[in-house]
Design a protein that fits this description.
mainly alpha
Length: 185
């Protein structure tokens, strides 16, 4: 496995709890403050990236359409998989059933999704976006694609595609490992 090097950051900014921007800078500096040749765990780096991105994106999404990132993920999946069920969403999002129910109820109350009884089994509810949900999805999609372009502007299109392929491969590997661990007992 190749050994990427990470430049050692000799200046760690102070963490000022009153400023979100200082939190971003602190986390980014902390993630890069690893001596050359040593590696932070991949999960650590992914977690720092997630925190930085969510903290920057959440206020924009809330201002534009009053939604949290997890609610937007639900809209995106319902858009991409019309007639998906909440059970299928739970698997795709790896989300707690209680939280999923809470987010779905909120989206339904705001008129962004609708539940349609399954034609074969009325106990199963399929989910679809309403017109308001489609509009919110489109707004959030525009914001999200713009943010990704800004956040990851140092990467070429080829590097971006390669990163996605590698992350898909890592996810498949982890899924295979998890399936094997469950079957082993």
């Amino acid at each position: 496995m190749p050994t990427p090097t990470i430049a050692h950051n000799t200046h760690m900014p102070s963490l000022d709890s009153d400023s979100e921007m200082s939190l971003y800078h602190y986390l980014a500096a902390a993630a890069l403050d690893i001596p050359t040749g040593n590696h932070a765990y991949l999960t650590y780096k992914l977690d720092v990236i997630k925190i930085l991105v969510l903290n920057a994106a959440e206020p924009l999404y809330r201002k534009a359409c009053g939604l949290r990132v997890k609610e937007i993920r639900l809209l995106r999946l319902i858009h991409d998989y019309p007639n998906i069920t909440s059970s299928e969403l739970k698997v795709k999002l790896v989300l707690d059933k209680t939280l999923l129910s809470k987010y779905l109820a909120g989206l339904e109350q705001r008129g962004m999704i609708e539940k349609i009884p399954d034609k074969q089994d009325n106990r199963i509810q399929q989910l679809r976006l309403t017109v308001a949900g489609e509009q919110a999805w489109q707004t959030c999609e525009t914001i999200g694609r713009g943010l990704e372009a800004k956040f990851f502007h140092h990467m070429s299109g080829q590097e971006w595609d390669q990163l996605h392929r590698l992350l898909d491969k890592a996810l498949n590997s982890l899924t295979d490992w998890h399936s094997q661990a469950i079957s082993d007992g």
